[in-house]
Amino acid sequence: MAGGTGVLVDLNRGVQPVALIDLSRVAGLRDATREGDTVRLGAGVTYTDVLERHASELPGLAAAARTVASRQVRNRATLAGALVLGDPSGDALAALGAAEAVVEIRGPRGERTVAADAFITRPGVCDLQHDELVTALLVPVADGPVAYAKAGARNAMARAVCAVAVALHPARRTATACVVGAGPVAIRPSIAEALVAASWDALGDAETAERFGALVAAAVDPLADERGSIAYRRHIAGVLAARALRRVAAEAVVAP
To answer: Where in the chain do CATH 3.30.465.10 domains reside?
Structure first.
């Protein structure tokens, strides 16, 4: 464990681990460095670290971090730890997916990377072997406006019923998006992303945002639980996606 926030929840539920290994004082895991157009966030970097040190470079991740739990939890909880817990509704997961971040993993067989949006393979399970360790998250620096939209019982201190992150890339005239909480894994709505590229000169049109939202709603695979029905989650995914695209389109229009 690093921050221990997820472990504490399990302990309170009566889970009795065979052993706990505290990684919080492994200095190398707390490092965060800029390497070209990528920020390498060590696996021990917390949500507060992102907010205080990397908000300008990683605005989408910072926006998602602001909605996570309380200040006390953000001071302890690590982004990598949240991924390893395997929660497919995680706030950071949406922002990392839209940023096309990758997870750096090391083990006795060497080093490998996995796309952040593909790292959680089903609820509670991630692409990590028993003898491997997440060492860092490699997050591209934002090259355009980014928006994060979340629906939940409360803005923080509650898991997202659904959340959507959208990032524009003006130089490429493309967008990347990621939806969480609307399926058993994070979802990259590729058809909706393609619409943005095809409609780049009409990004500010209300019709483009509505079509984008409809395509995102069609791409998700929601599960019903006590926090929302399938129909509600599909609907809210479309609403949040349209809202996020309108935000980034407005920023792109006014950008010099």
So the answer is: 5-12+29-140
Model confidence at 92: pLDDT above 80: yes
Class of the CATH-defined domain 5-12+29-140: alpha beta
Structure tokens, 110: 């060497």
- From-to residues of CATH 3.30.390.50 in the chain: 146-254
Write out pLDDT tens, residues 107-135. 999 999 999 999 999 999 999 999 999 99
Distance CA 121, CA 32 (A): 26
Determine which helix (DSSP H) or strand (DSSP E) holds 166, and give its type and residue range. strand 162-169
pLDDT at position 256 is: 46
Is the model's pTM score more than 0.85?
yes
Q: Cα(247)–Cα(148) distance, rounded to whole angstroms? A: 9
For 112, 144, 149, 233, the CA distances from 226, given in Å and listed in that order, are 37, 37, 21, 12
Measure the CA–CA gap between 169 and 128, rounded to whole angstroms.
31
Q: How far is CA 223 from the centre of its chain?
A: 19
Alpha helices in 143-198 (DSSP H): 190-198
150: closest CA among 161, 139, 134?
Answer: 161
Q: Name the fold adopted by 146-254.
A: Enolase-like; domain 1 (3.30.390)
Query: How far separated are the first and last CA of the chain, in Å rounded?
Result: 44
